[in-house]
Automatic annotation (TrEMBL):
Keywords: ATP-binding, Ligase, Nucleotide-binding
Transmembrane spans: none
Species, as recorded: Natrinema saccharevitans
GO molecular function: acetate-CoA ligase (ADP-forming) activity; ATP binding; metal ion binding
Catalytic activity: acetate + ATP + CoA = acetyl-CoA + ADP + phosphate
Identification of the protein by name: acetate--CoA ligase (ADP-forming)
InterPro entries to which the protein is assigned, alphabetical: Acyl-CoA_Synth/Transferase, ATP-grasp, ATP_grasp_subdomain_1, CoA-bd, Ligase_CoA_dom, NAD(P)-bd_dom_sf, Succ_CoA_lig_flav_dom, Succinyl-CoA_synth-like
Secreted as UniProt keyword: no
Annotated EC: 6.2.1.13
SUPFAM superfamilies: Glutathione synthetase ATP-binding domain-like, NAD(P)-binding Rossmann-fold domains, Succinyl-CoA synthetase domains
Annotated Pfam families: ATP-grasp_5, CoA_binding_2, Ligase_CoA_2, Succ_CoA_lig
Residues annotated as domain ATP-grasp: 487-523
Group of enzyme by EC: ligase
Amino acid sequence: MGRLSALFDPETVAVVGATDREGAVGRAILENLRDGFDGEVVPVNPSRETVLGLECYEDATSAPPIDLAVVVVPPDIVIEAIRDVADAGTENVVVITAGFSETGGEGAERERRLREIAAERNLNVVGPNSLGIMATANGMNATFGPEDAREGSISFMSQSGAFITAVLDWANEQGIGFRDVVSLGNKTVLDETDFVREWGSDPNTDVVIGYLEDIDDGQDFLEAAREVTADTPIVLVKSGRTDAGAQAASSHTGAIAGSERAYEAGLEQAGVLRARSVQELFDSARALAGLPEPESDGVAVVTNAGGPGVLTTDAVGDSTLEMADFADGTFDRLAAAMPDEANVYNPIDAIGDADVERFGEALEIALEDPNVGSAVVVAAPTAVLSYDELAETVIEKLETHDTPVVTCLMGGERARDAEERLRESGIPNYFDPSRAVSGLDALARFRDIRERTIDEPATFDVDRERAREILARTKRRDDNRLGVESMDLLEAYGIPTPQGEIVDDPDRAREVAESIEGDVVMKIVSPDISHKSDIGGVRVGVSDADVADTYEDVVSRARNYQPDATIVGVQIQELLDLEASTETIVGMNRDPQFGPLVLFGLGGIFVEILEDTSVRVAPIGEGEAREMVDEIQAAPLLRGARGREPADVDGVVETIQRLSQLVTDFPSILELDINPLVAGPDGVQAIDLRLTVDPDDLDTTDP
């Protein structure tokens, strides 16, 4: 058990602010505890001698030793109450009271003081603005909700107290049980990461689920979740999508990789299964809490109804699973066991007059097939089929083969007793075949999470001091943007760049061009002009004789396009053979929660149009960098599609890793684009660069 075990297993719980006044929250919490908690309940209120028949104490220091204090006093005396329980030696506190940061400046100040005293006294504080917590193992309902939770092995956290009350009402009706339940409230001290760690170390929690609107520290959460999901699945509904991460983004990466992309990438890397709805959340949790992992993705479907069988097949096609391809011996056995009218291919249709014995025999044969990793039993009610007996048969087959089986016993009241019996054996029953498949899909996805390996990020030999000097140029500029004039930043981190130089007069332009073999590329250099090619600010294949005139032309076009733009100069650059190459983009946007979000995709002029990109939270290792390359739709171009010579994919993968190291080393880099990164058979070259830097952060956090 973890450091919060006493929070859920106290011997004595005090309700600070307990009252017998009808309709009061302090009364509701006291009643819930009094009626179910195995331990001692202690009311604390200086205005009462007894509350609901229990001896009441003036303050926590005069009460018996308190393991958990539930604070439900007016907001202006919460801090005083917490000091009192801390003085009494209590380390675990739940603050029900609202009126903190959610109410404005005065409340935010109150919350700051709460955080300070918690740190000073080493308190574990849930809330404030919390519904409370539950622990079913000891009957503790320290909430003001109307429902007690059933006992089970699912631990549940929510940022919304109302969500908890609604879910418990529904879950009790569905027979779904919980281990611990936490209303996170404002998360002033304890947050989602703390409970992920706690429940990950709890042998009695089989699944962690949650409803979250945000994650306070994405990097910390990612680290904790990766550790926990090695053994315990985490399933989350994440709401509250926001454009905050993309607001005022000046780079392509910033525009594409907003906060929602960060959550998608971060949760995926953390091994968290993300549910799209509350229904999917619990469909996944039920399967994960009671069933073994499938050994393969092949699904067998056994049914007595053709239509539902087809629906189940469609659902498998929409998932990460596949319909099992039966071995020849399986077809022979099914043909011998089933009527002539039956379908012995997958899905197995035992036809409408199938009884329990025929269902059981078909399921037995399917589970013995080496290509079957899981099975769905889909049954429509008939006069010859007993759901109760079918449930017993399914339980027997699962126990014999240790292969996950879910059921879809379609119907209403006649399925209830069978459903209850299946639930007792850890087998979820779903009315909708697609939900049954969703449960199996969660099992397979979690199996893949457990089996995957995460490479440690490589540490390349780089010139950090040179990089720092380049980033510090923003201190001497009117804004915090850097462009191609800072290409040596990439060189400091070992990212290849073409031969070239930025010049500020036509004569020097000619000299640089003559030092480069062949024709050159010329580009206007301005932090204020993003789309250089749109204004004629890029010229390709310029001969030495035309360099001076081209210099004057691109500068003139830039000034006409944007008179107030800062013109740094013109870049003279080696001309690369792009015919056999692919233009890609490697970039980074710093997300408020998860930190550096690295992006890779098809680059050049297509990046914003096609948005063919993949993202990861840095730092990343070689395996994740290679996955980023493989995930984009244009990956075949890099691999050598339609006779093209393959690009240096290893060079692309290394560049992604080097960029990951750069933006991890320097938190002051807010946004960065290498676009394009030209990937050809002979290697990669970074052609253009844009980045935004926080010069103040450069002083305080960077190495």
